[in-house]
Amino acid sequence: QVQLVESGGGAVQAGGSLRLSCVASERTSSIYTVAWFRQAPGKERNFVAAINQSGRVVSYADSVKFRFAIARDSAKDTVYLQMNSLKPENTAAYYCAARSYATWSKLGESSTYAFWGQGTQVTVSS
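^ that's the sequence the OP posted. Answer follows.
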């Protein structure tokens, strides 16, 4: 059972930056895809970004392209989400998710991820 622990959330003003971290309890080399999702109060959980096992293939939701960057450090079993130019609408709980099968598809479907972290809150004020 893979355990994921997120950190790095907090409160920031619009235009600011945060870096979220997701640490896995076992070698991330055994996990093919790691993704970030977010969920605002009263809304559904939405895909933000994903990264493959090698770290060389990434995917982003259109709303965060060119502002957010996902990266993977397998030596530290950690995946990062660098968030720049934050907007109030980015306020949400951010979740790290992982799956171990080697398929680069259905990245935005939360049901395809077997492992989830507890979430970290990001609040962006105007």
